[in-house]
Amino acid sequence: LYLQNTLKLSAAEAGYTFLAMTLALGVLSPIGGKLADKMDIRIPINVGFGFGILSCILMMFWQSHTSLAFVIIGLLMAGIGLGVSFPSINTAMFRTLPSAEINSGSALFTMAMMIGNTLSVIINTSLLVFVARPFLLKSIRDQGLIFTPEQTQQLLDLTGKIDHGVSQFNLFSADLKMTAMILV
After folding, report:
1. Dist. CA 24–CA 80, nearest whole Å
2. pTM here?
3. In degrees to the nearest 10, what's the CA dihedral of 47, 49, 52, 58?
4. What pLDDT does 106 receive?
């Protein structure tokens, strides 16, 4: 969404950009698995988490004018982190199970991972909207903008939406439409 809505890349260009993460994950997963077999399993897990943290730090600085190279570096760091840590986490889980319970354990592990992924998206999106709304209201006040209550509510409602097209700003006059779009 960031690549398409903010950086204005096409769907194909956004997909190609994600190849940095996908290829790093694919190439490093077998290596991460081998590392888990050859050393203390905590080392590849922590190295992977370190790359994941570095990726998150880089992504914190993404803005509307961020270069594609900087975006690719952030995605590459994420792919390295996932490629090194995921196989080690799976190996750690399998080592704790008796061989007769590996199928059930694998299914439970996958289910827990999917639930965790889903909850993280819900929590992060809610947190983003929770933080964005007060920031939006403060920006309106700081810039001395005057909107009707209906316009203000429309702006607040748009903080929870992914795409912001011109048609969504129907309560605004032509001279305020661009200002409202920039605020959201």
Report:
1. 5
2. 0.68
3. -80
4. 87
